[in-house]
């Protein structure tokens, strides 16, 4: 069933940099998560790592929510909070942690990057967002870049049918979580939506409590610190900045933005893990970034005849909706 998309919030000209800055913050922190997961995954099993990450994220988000006195979101937000909490915060994290233990990094990158395509398709079907040509073109270029990055990074581990299935499951859970979260942001702030989504994800992962306690007793300090980092930054901070940006654009465009992650992972692995990228990996990273630039660009339109001045601020959403339909 297609729903009418909620009007996008209109920011004053001086504040229009905030949503792009929030999206960039999310992408950088999510890219760093791949490095931390690789380190923490040597000492923690997938479920325990997901639970520890979500508990740390919930504590940070809950503390900020109390300090800001934002309270509970409105009733209309809860279906989206519950769905995204179970699928995105819970299932996605466990499936991705497990999948990366079963397949090499290149295969995982290619499979998980099906997610943005699914987000665009689900957003068009469930949210009535449309599929503008620039978005489709940009996603095609970025996906090609993700495949190239995957091919460049492959060969460092074995692949299994189970690992492929888990990465595909993670991509589906990610896409469904994003699309279900989008309507909830019309009924609450990003902090509210993500605090309770993270809490629900942690509750869903509580069956791994015993494993987490057991593994934490034997894990090196570096692995535990990486798990805490995952909860504080790629979860608490990055999901909040994601929600802020998502409330101000379409789910399809935000999904396409995450295609910058593989390019950043290549650079971070070079700096932090001393993994020198291959020429093929550099080409793939450039394609990923180019596709994001195309998908996020606006179609240039000339001034209206008889009214060459800039349109009034209140008509900005109407123009964006019209651009989405072209």
From TrEMBL:
<protein>
    <submittedName>
        <fullName>DMT family transporter</fullName>
    </submittedName>
</protein>
<keyword id="KW-0472">Membrane</keyword>
<feature type="compositionally biased region" description="Polar residues">
    <location>
        <begin position="298"/>
        <end position="307"/>
    </location>
</feature>
<feature type="transmembrane region" description="Helical">
    <location>
        <begin position="160"/>
        <end position="179"/>
    </location>
</feature>
<keyword id="KW-1133">Transmembrane helix</keyword>
<feature type="domain" description="EamA">
    <location>
        <begin position="162"/>
        <end position="294"/>
    </location>
</feature>
<feature type="compositionally biased region" description="Basic and acidic residues">
    <location>
        <begin position="313"/>
        <end position="326"/>
    </location>
</feature>
<feature type="transmembrane region" description="Helical">
    <location>
        <begin position="254"/>
        <end position="273"/>
    </location>
</feature>
<feature type="transmembrane region" description="Helical">
    <location>
        <begin position="105"/>
        <end position="123"/>
    </location>
</feature>
<feature type="transmembrane region" description="Helical">
    <location>
        <begin position="47"/>
        <end position="67"/>
    </location>
</feature>
<feature type="region of interest" description="Disordered">
    <location>
        <begin position="298"/>
        <end position="326"/>
    </location>
</feature>
<keyword id="KW-0812">Transmembrane</keyword>
<feature type="transmembrane region" description="Helical">
    <location>
        <begin position="79"/>
        <end position="99"/>
    </location>
</feature>
<dbReference type="InterPro" id="IPR052756">
    <property type="entry name" value="Alkyne_AA_exporter"/>
</dbReference>
<feature type="transmembrane region" description="Helical">
    <location>
        <begin position="191"/>
        <end position="214"/>
    </location>
</feature>
<dbReference type="Pfam" id="PF00892">
    <property type="entry name" value="EamA"/>
</dbReference>
<dbReference type="InterPro" id="IPR037185">
    <property type="entry name" value="EmrE-like"/>
</dbReference>
<dbReference type="InterPro" id="IPR000620">
    <property type="entry name" value="EamA_dom"/>
</dbReference>
<feature type="transmembrane region" description="Helical">
    <location>
        <begin position="135"/>
        <end position="154"/>
    </location>
</feature>
<feature type="domain" description="EamA">
    <location>
        <begin position="22"/>
        <end position="149"/>
    </location>
</feature>
<feature type="transmembrane region" description="Helical">
    <location>
        <begin position="279"/>
        <end position="295"/>
    </location>
</feature>
<comment type="similarity">
    <text>Belongs to the EamA transporter family.</text>
</comment>
<feature type="transmembrane region" description="Helical">
    <location>
        <begin position="226"/>
        <end position="247"/>
    </location>
</feature>
